[in-house]
Specification:
The chain has about 120 residues and is α+β, with helices and mostly antiparallel strands. The chain contains five helices and four strands, in the order βαββαβααα. Helix 1 runs antiparallel to helix 3. The relative contact order is 0.20.
Length: about 120
């Protein structure tokens, strides 16, 4: 079993609960979300999200267990992906997510922009 605890940056809504349940369906791990003395399996989160009463500042605990592919690795990956998605959807943006462009990419992009003389970048 793997556990991660954090504070919610915002409220849990029905839309966020649906998104999180869809994400958890990608894994065989059982993911459980706990807050305010209540626990809900991620697969039924769209129905019972309001039981958790998650608002900004609520203490959240997420556990992942029972994954099969491979066992421990899937649990760790499921937990990491679920928590990151939860935090992103409720308004918490981890520091590494804010740094999307690598310095070399920026300089090469600037070079491409100056070489073609326009701001349009082709992919």
């Amino acid at each position: 079993m793997y556990v991660e605890k954090f504070q919610s940056a915002g409220d849990l809504t029905a839309e966020i609960a649906e998104d999180l349940a869809a994400l958890s369906g990608r894994y065989s791990s059982r993911i459980t979300v706990s807050s305010n003395g209540r626990s809900v399996q991620s697969t039924v989160l769209p129905v019972y999200w309001d039981v958790l009463r998650v608002v900004a500042g609520s203490a959240i605990s997420v556990t992942a267990e029972g994954g099969h592919q491979p066992r421990d690795e899937e649990d760790r990956r499921a937990l990491r992906d679920f928590v990151l998605r939860f935090q992103t959807l409720t308004g918490h943006y981890p520091a590494r997510a804010q740094h999307t462009a690598h310095p070399r990419r920026q300089s090469s992009k600037k070079a491409r922009l100056s070489s073609i003389g326009t701001k349009r970048v082709t992919r």
